[in-house]
């Protein structure tokens, strides 16, 4: 794979035949699976005239699956972070450390509460935050850390847990892309004080909604009070007292019913995604100038995204053209700079300063082509993906 140079003219981008054309497209992450039991659970909600507590049951099933005491279902994970930080009374003057490479959902709550989002740099190989980089940005105003398991890869949590404990900071895991990924034999989301999962349309579980998990009963009660029960508590004669500014970030019964049906299938989705990604990574390693995702020892993966890193010093094209060429061959992918929050979120203050400092984050993303991973590939599809990458890489080899 490594040596043959393909004439530019053979690239589909230059009018050649696409490796996987429109008649024979590669699978994508959609359609998302719906368990055969889904209609049974949904009908149970309907047949009970909305008295069947599918939400409570989904929470119990999720907590049991993860091996934790409490699970709280909410409408989105974006809202979970907002509700959780509100429950911890984080506000103006406070700082919350988040990964710079993540989704808007990780930071919306911080910004909505008037706190400041602080972005440490990352490990250039994995794109994940580390204890070392987090420590550099801790100040007396720091209140919490949100460690994002980006792409589905779990952060090296042990040193981060030690650091957070040492500095008495709330530590939260953003597990939206990494459900069921393992870290030293523990499930992602069960390592920090709180783990937060998303079930939005593109995630491994796609029933809509989100879940926060934890073992601390007092914290669970506090989150319910602020994030779901709108800061209100029962008062005399069936009235209620609104004691605090609260939110109504609850999940709906229908989504919970779908979640209950789909949850048992999650482990197999993640297992297959790992198997397929490992197969591709093995093949990509033999292509000159291209690297598969870096997976450190002990840090498990759930592969929500897969990415390739092109060493741009080795190719006679920029990443944009390489991505166009991959797309033309039938591998639908895009650049990842979008995920660098201070880069893509133009309304955030001090972003120029952040971008100067986030050297590893920028380097990690600069030569990247990424796409949503899928459990729907066959082994042959994976072999074709590797062939497409080799074809494009060989054509542009400098
Ligand atoms: C999807 C995602 C979110 C937001 O989750 P929603 O349920 O869509 O609000 C947050 N963080 C990461 C890393 C995500 O991938």
Task: Describe it.
The longest helix is centred in the last third of the chain and has 19 residues, at 266-284. 37% of the residues lie in helices and 14% in strands. A seven-stranded mixed β-sheet has the order 1-9-8-5-4-2-3, with helices on both faces. With 398 residues, the chain is of the alpha/beta class. Helix 6 links the parallel strand 4 (142-148) and strand 5 (170-174). Helix 1 (38-47) runs antiparallel to helix 8 (253-262). The protein starts with 37 loop residues before the first helix and ends with a helix. The chain binds pyridoxal-5'-phosphate (PLP). Pyridoxal-5'-phosphate binds next to helix 3 and helix 4.
Sum this structure up briefly.
The protein has helices at residues 38-47, 54-66, 77-87, 104-112, 131-137, 157-166, 217-228, 253-262, 266-284, 319-329, 341-344, 351-357, 359-366, 379-396; strands at 70-74, 95-98, 116-118, 142-148, 170-174, 182-183, 186-187, 194-198, 210-214, 232-234, 240-242, 290-291, 305-310, 368-372.
Assign the structural class, choosing from mainly alpha, mainly beta, alpha/beta, alpha+beta, or little secondary structure. Answer: alpha/beta
User: N- to C-terminal separation?
Assistant: 16 Å
Low-pLDDT stretches? none
Mean pLDDT: 96
Ligand list: pyridoxal-5'-phosphate
């Amino acid at each position: 794979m490594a040596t043959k140079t393909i004439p530019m003219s053979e690239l589909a981008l230059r009018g050649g035949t696409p490796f996987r054309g429109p008649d024979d497209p590669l699978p994508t992450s959609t359609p998302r699976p719906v368990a055969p039991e889904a209609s049974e659970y949904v009908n149970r909600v309907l047949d009970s005239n909305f008295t069947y507590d599918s939400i409570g049951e989904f929470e119990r099933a999720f907590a049991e699956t993860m091996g934790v005491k409490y699970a709280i279902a909410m409408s989105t994970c974006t809202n979970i972070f907002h509700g959780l930080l509100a429950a911890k009374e984080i506000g103006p003057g406070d700082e919350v450390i988040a990964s710079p490479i993540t989704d808007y959902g990780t930071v919306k709550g911080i910004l909505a509460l008037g706190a400041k989002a602080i972005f440490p740099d990352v490990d250039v190989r994995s794109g994940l935050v580390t204890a070392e980089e987090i420590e550099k940005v801790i100040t007396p105003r720091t209140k919490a850390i949100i460690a994002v398991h980006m792409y589905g890869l779990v952060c090296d949590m042990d040193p981060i847990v030690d650091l957070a404990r040492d500095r008495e900071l709330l530590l939260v895991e953003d597990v939206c892309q990494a459900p069921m990924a393992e870290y030293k034999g523990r499930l992602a989301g069960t390592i920090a004080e709180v783990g937060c999962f998303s079930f939005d349309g593109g995630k491994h579980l796609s029933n809509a909604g989100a879940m926060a998990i934890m073992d601390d009963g007092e914290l669970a009660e506090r989150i319910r009070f602020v994030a779901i029960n709108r800061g209100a508590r029962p008062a005399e004669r069936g009235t209620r007292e609104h004691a605090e500014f609260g939110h109504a970030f609850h999940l709906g019964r229908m989504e919970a019913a779908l979640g209950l049906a789909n949850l048992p299938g999650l482990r197999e989705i993640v297992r297959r995604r790992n198997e397929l990604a490992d197969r591709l990574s093995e093949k990509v390693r033999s292509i000159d100038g291209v690297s598969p995702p870096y997976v450190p020892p002990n840090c498990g993966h759930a592969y929500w995204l897969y990415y390739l890193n092109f060493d741009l010093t080795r190719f006679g094209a920029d990443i944009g053209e390489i991505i166009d060429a991959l797309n033309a061959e039938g591998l639908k992918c895009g650049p990842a700079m979008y995920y660098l929050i201070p880069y893509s979120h133009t309304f955030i203050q001090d972003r120029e300063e952040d971008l100067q400092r986030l050297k590893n984050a920028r380097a990690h993303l600069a030569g990247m082509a990424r796409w949503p991973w899928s459990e729907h590939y066959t082994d042959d599809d994976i072999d074709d993906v590797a062939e497409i990458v080799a074809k494009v890489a060989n054509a542009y080899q400098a």
